[in-house]
Design a protein that fits this description.
The chain is α/β, with parallel strands linked by helices. It is built from 15 helices and 21 strands.
Length: 469
């Protein structure tokens, strides 16, 4: 835990008592603050109280002595309108902040620790985990958290030489004022979370906070492959005051890191080197992971890690659970768990990586369904449809992809495995990449992926288990 001493002896309101809220309340208590914590869910309040968090109904108390409001990232700050507790804080002039801002305040009291922040619409988690993996491989004292894994305030306290690698969502950045990132990674931008930020401009504005407090010598590592990110890249170059490093999965970018022809190229020091053959890094399949690898490479180079060490680490990177996770091999058939793909854009990234796909899809369909995946339909041998909106997806695929109405994940996995084994393709893939939310049949996308992993383990004969990567 990282104690937060900035509010010692003062009252701080904490609203929202899930993972980050509980961590914030405990960190404030450890730093001597008087905490008044609340959540609208009685069950959540009880769970927080069991961990020693002081419960105090913020709807009923006098806010006159509240020094700050620590808001859960998921609670509306400005759109569609400020939450009622935000209005209460604003009425008494109390700043509204998040757990990442508390982390920044705690870090400001010490020296010697560095921060790598990672944001973007897609790829944040993989890039954050990959940077952490590379830095650990290099022997650094690394702590990884934020929007991935551990809440940032649950990480070990700062000390000289430590490196925090923090995934930062737009929600978290919206509540962050003073965080300084030694390396700030901006991967890409596509319209997202408009209900929270009002419009795309508000979303981009929140994301840009990742660069707000950088100093000369710090690095801004920015994807150059989409228009909005390219604009930010140009603007930051014009401002000066920091090192700006472009990264790309599609074109050469002088002074940056880019992927072309399946090879990662590094020109960050003004010289060109072929850094890594991406086919040698099986945990990073596909073009989207080429950008993630380029960004992670640039961040590690900025922190002084040698190219040979980075390449060695990337070759050994296992990938993340539920994100194109290889969970089994049965003869020629590979089984891939991409349960994190809860919309069509995410599923497209996985479908684009394989040539002969037995695709398990379905659940609670998002707006537009799977129509946008039409360019990938030729790769799909069959689609095995599950869940609440299987019939709707089937209608979108009619006449384009052969479909099997499986209903359950168990039935889909078994049928897909049989079809893949019996087919003529040399390297078929049974791919769970649902393009849908999971809550019709599962607790979460993680639960869905865990079930698939177990089903695959049960399907593969004991004699074939040695084929597993």
């Amino acid at each position: 835990m990282i104690p937060v001493r900035a509010y010692e002896g003062r009252r701080v309101a904490v609203f929202g008592l899930a993972r980050t809220g509980i961590a914030a309340a405990r960190a404030l208590q450890a730093g001597g603050a008087v905490v008044s914590a609340w959540d609208d869910s009685e069950e959540t309040r009880a769970a927080a109280a069991a961990q020693g968090v002081p419960i105090d109904d913020l709807n009923r108390r006098d806010w006159g002595d509240v020094a700050a409001l620590v808001l859960s990232p998921g609670v509306p700050l400005t759109h569609p309108e400020p939450h009622r507790v935000v209005k209460l804080a604003q009425a008494v002039g109390a700043p509204v902040i998040g757990d990442t801002e508390l982390f920044a305040q705690a870090l400001a009291e010490t020296s010697g620790a560095r921060v790598v922040g990672v944001t973007g619409t897609n790829g944040k988690s993989t890039t954050t985990a990959l940077i952490g993996h590379v830095l650990r491989h290099a022997g650094l004292d690394v702590r990884v958290g934020g929007n991935i894994g551990e809440a940032v305030l649950n990480l070990d306290p700062p000390r000289p030489g430590a490196v925090y690698v923090i995934e930062l969502s737009s929600y978290q950045l919206d509540l962050t004022k003073t965080l300084r990132c030694d390396a700030a990674v901006w991967l890409n931008i596509t319209p997202d979370h408009i209900d929270r930020h009002g419009d795309v401009a508000g979303y981009v504005k929140a994301k840009r906070r990742i660069f707000a407090n950088q100093r000369p010598g710090d690095a801004a590592i920015i994807g150059a492959d989409d228009r909005a990110s390219a604009k930010v890249l140009t603007e930051l170059r014009g401002q000066g005051g920091r090192k700006v490093v472009p990264v790309s999965a599609a074109k050469a970018v002088p002074g940056g890191v880019y992927a072309l022809g399946g090879v990662l190229h590094d020109t960050t020091d003004g010289q060109h080197r072929e850094a890594l053959t991406l086919a040698d890094a099986p945990g990073l399949p596909g073009r989207h992971n080429a950008q993630n690898a380029a960004a992670a490479w640039a961040a590690a180079r900025h922190l002084g890690v040698q190219p040979a060490v980075i390449a060695e680490a990337m070759r050994a990177f296992p990938g993340l659970a539920h994100r194109q996770e290889r969970v089994g091999q049965w003869g020629k058939v590979a089984f891939v768990n991409d349960s994190k793909a809860t919309n069509a854009d995410a599923a497209a990234q996985a479908l684009g990586c394989y040539d002969a796909v037995h695709w398990i899809a379905g659940g609670q369909m998002k707006s537009g369904g799977v129509k946008s995946l039409k360019d990938h339909f030729p790769r799909i041998r069959r689609a095995y449809l599950i869940g609440q909106d299987a019939a709707k997806i089937g209608r979108q695929l009619r006449g384009k992809v052969e479909t099997v109405m499986s209903g359950t994940l168990e039935e889909a996995a078994a049928r897909a495995a049989r079809d893949a084994l019996d087919g003529d393709d040399a390297a078929p893939v049974v791919l769970l990449s649902p393009a849908c939310a999971s809550f019709d049949q599962f607790r979460s996308f993680e639960h869905r992926g865990d079930v698939f992993r177990q089903l695959v383990d049960d399907l593969i004969p004991a004699s074939a288990k040695g084929d597993r990567p």
